[in-house]
Amino acid sequence: MTHVQVSNNVTIGILALQGAFAEHQTALQKLSCQKKISVVLVRTAEDLSACDALIIPGGESTTIAFLAKLSGLLEPLRTFLQKKPVWGTCAGAILLAQAVENTKRGGQELLGGISVTIARNGWGSQVESFEAPLSIDGLLDPSTPFMGVFIRAPVVLALHPSTENPPIEVIARLPINLVPKSQKLTLHDEGDFSPQDSQSIVALRQGRHMLTTFHPELTKDSRFHEYFVRTCVVPTLL
């Protein structure tokens, strides 16, 4: 059981229009806190208004965006992002990006909130999905690698830091020796803001928001959910 210190009751929403929202719910329910974490499956603007933070799950980013538009949630989600913490995993990471490449014909709606450009399906198709152990200092028990599950995962093409926005903090990278041999990306180690080097980034934070290009919810390890609550959500409640 993972322990989190929180000073108030916390309501965390999970956008539940499509994708792995049930898996996120299970992971949050594993967390042990001094105060209760309530989970809301968000399907309406009213659901969203009850939340202190939000998780946008993995799934199909164009489908999630389309259903959010049909549900009248796009603008409420954009307003929510301006005030409260949001974490996007895989498809959710795409929706949080400032810009996206390799979209379907006609493009797609984005929520924005994190100053990056992302490519959909950057690691290849479904059959080229893979898992890789990640070393992450900020997690509980950092000596134990976190298993990243990459399924049609997006790739961070570029970071766009500016003085007008909070700094971008890289949380995790995919070591070049763990890149599947079927992938043609060439990764370098030239600093966080090198266009080449950005492709190795698989988790990052900007202010209260976080994205992961992999699926923490598809493991039995809830440390990334604890990290989100501890570093992104709790500070906004103090």
In short:
By secondary structure, this protein is α/β, with parallel strands linked by helices. It has helices spanning 21-30, 45-49, 61-70, 74-81, 91-96, 223-237, and strands at residues 2-4, 10-15, 31-33, 37-42, 53-56, 86-89, 97-101, 114-119, 130-134, 146-150, 155-159, 168-173, 201-206, 209-212.
Tags for this model:
238 residues, alpha/beta, seven-stranded mixed β-sheet, 23% helix
Low-confidence stretches: 187-193
- Overall radius of gyration: 17 Å
Structural class: alpha/beta
Termini distance?
A: 24 Å
Structure annotation, total helices: 6
What is the string of helix and strand elements?
EEHEEHEHHEHEEEEEEEEH
Strand order of the largest sheet: 4-2-5-6-14-13-12
The count of DSSP E runs of length 2 or more, i.e. the number of strands, is 14
Largest sheet: 7 strands, mixed
Q: What does the oligomeric state look like here?
A: single chain
Helix content: 10-25%
Strand content: 25-35%
Average pLDDT rating:
87
Overall form? globular
What would you say this structure looks like, in words?
This protein has 238 residues and is an alpha/beta fold. Helix content is 23%, strand content 29%. The protein contains six helices and 14 strands. A seven-stranded mixed sheet has the order 4-2-5-6-14-13-12. Strands 7-8-11 form a three-stranded mixed sheet. A hairpin with a 2-residue loop joins β13 (201-206) and β14. The two termini are 24 Å apart. Mean pLDDT is 87; it is low at 187-193.
